[in-house]
Amino acid sequence: MARPGRNGAVDWLIFAVLLAGVIVSCGPFAWMLATSIKPDAEVFRFPPTLFTTDPQLDNYREIFSAIPFGRAFVNSLVVCIAITLAQLLVCSMAAYAFACLDFRGREPLFLIYLAALMVPPQVTIIPNFILVRSLGWIDTYQGLILPFAFSSFGTFLLRQYFKTIPKELIEAARIDGCAHWQIYLYIVMPLSRAALGALAIFAFVSQWNNFLWPLIVTTRPEMQTVTVALSTLQGQYNTDWPLLMTGSVLAVAPVIAVFILGNRSFIAGLTAGSFGGR
Amino acid sequence: MAGRGSLARRDAVAAWLFLAPSLVLFITFTGLPVVAAFLISFTQWDLFNPAKFVGLGNYMTLARDGIFGKVMGNTAYFVLASVPAQMVLGLACALALNRGIRGQTFFRVAYFLPVVTSTIAAALVWAWLFNSNFGLINALLSAFGITDPPRWLGSTTWALPAVIVVSVWQNVGYAMVLFLAGLQNIPKDLYDAGAIDGAQGWRRFYYITLPMLSPTTFFVLIISIIGSFQVFELVFVMTNAGPANATNTLVFYIYQNGFQFYQMGYASAAAMVLFLIVLIATLVQYRLQTRWVHYG
Predict the structure, then answer these.
(1) What is the protein's membrane topology class (chain B) (predicted)?
(2) Strand, helix or coil for residue A202
(3) Which residues of B touch A32 (CB under 8 A)?
(4) In chain B, what are the domain boundaries?
(5) CB B62: neighbour CB atoms within 10 A?
(6) pTM for the whole thing?
């Protein structure tokens, strides 16, 4: 600040380095897109062409016949929306109890919920697989959805937010004869749109990108989610790079679109409460 | 008095009703499975025959298993290389953006893009970039006169570093966003006071920014360590743990034993090792953050 001339030069240098960094962070996406529209023959040319002069969209048609990719999209949408809605409901209800109600065992139970954040998902995946399998839920939506319908992280996030709602508001409603479900539904939830939005984004994106669980609880291609379909595609067409890049473009496009449209609430959601974990 | 007592009891009833859905789901899919995983780790179980109790057998086998030794070595290599890299780069980006540089929002979005991307899709495009015959990376290397570039994912030496590069690429943005939030929490007057005492440039960074940022740094460190120990999807897509287990890591090994070899007991024992590591990292954070970390 004291020496604008020098700082100006430093800032320009930093700006240039940051721009170079963008090539690294976003270059792979451009390469994905560029490869997906290349004619097959051009892909195996060395040195490679950066951008084709003969763009074509054949792969965007072929991918839907190579594997049930359209169905995988529907599956991912169904699963992600169901999990997001379930988490919003289940976590907000639990958070209401923890933040707004007095009952014996509240603190210990909350600590137990929090402790679950320390458990890596890979630890519970084997017993969960055995459970879901013995229920006959392999290749079903409930098998894909129910294990993720509750989240400790979401409960923690919403509880912190609910605690910032003035106690007087809730007490006044009680004096007016409101039942708890009415306070929850008509006062706490409408006031917490920001936190609910952050949780919704976090839940949707993490589920859209989730892989290991859908991989092990689906066997039929018709029940696969997008990420699993993509790995199946890799197994079947492992040298057909234009087709694989087409699948990748389609898998990342929805999330990137949502991200660029709402990047502020998006980043807030993904780093909410600094408890994160992707 | 009686009125207040019944009100409190009604509160308690309401509370348990509000908690019921989460309790059922939590007990079914987290609580019991944690206990079950621990118990299964003492058995030999392929899901088709009844489970057989083997005591500490799986843990003894793990200790003697040469592949598991290699897996733990790879995982340690992965963590030790990727965590410092993503933290240093994330901090550098955050410091650069925190200067109020023009285009801040654009850079934030651009650097955060890999974070929100499906790891499967990211791993696919990087596998293509690292392709030893037709990949862009080797094309660039040969353009710079390197006639004999590494075979990357096909090489026992270079496959793991390649996976590490992708992991760092994907996680820098996350560290950056956390560091940015930390930097913005440092009170401005500290810098003003420092300026009076002659703290400029590196001194200012070393004596003000770094100590004030330490809670964030510590948090990013622990989150990164925990995340790195769980690397799986990159390995699954890019190398399938090969060549010759050169990129086999802890979670891949759990997956492999559980869902390819159907050795549920052995996989659970390996999962318990992962659990222990994550538990230790979390407890260290909990215990030491008050001692090492400077809060403003």
Answers:
(1) Multi-pass membrane protein
(2) helix
(3) 121, 125
(4) 66-292
(5) 21
(6) 0.91
Question: The domain at B66-292 falls in which architecture?
Answer: Orthogonal Bundle (1.10)
Looking at residue B1, what is its pLDDT? 42
Distance, CA of A51 to CA of A129 (rounded, Å): 45
Give me B18's structure tokens: 């509000």
Chain B residue with minimum CA distance to A253 = B117
What distance in Å separates the CA atoms of residue A174 and residue A177, rounded to the nearest whole number?
A: 5
ipTM associated with this complex: 0.90
A89 at the B interface (CB within 8 A)? yes
Greatest CA separation for chain B: 88
What single string gives the DSSP state of each residue in B40-98?
HTTEE--SSS--EE-TTHHHHHHHH-HHHHHHHHHHHHHHHHHHHHHHHHHHHHHHHHT
The domains of chain A, with CATH numbers, are 4-56 (no CATH), 67-274 (1.10.3720.10)
A32: nearest Cα among A54, A53, A60: A60
Question: B139 to chain A: which residues are within 8 Å by CB?
Answer: 46-48
| Nearest beta carbon to residue A255 from set B12, B117, B267 | B117
Q: For residue range A51-62, list pLDDT tens digits in order.
A: 888 888 999 999
Q: What is the mean pLDDT of chain B?
A: 91
- Looking up tokens 């290599």, which residue turns up? B77
Range A164-202 burial, b when 16+ CB lie within 10 A, else e: ebeeeebeebeeeebebeebbeebbbebbeebbbbbbbb
Q: What is the mean pLDDT of chain A?
A: 89
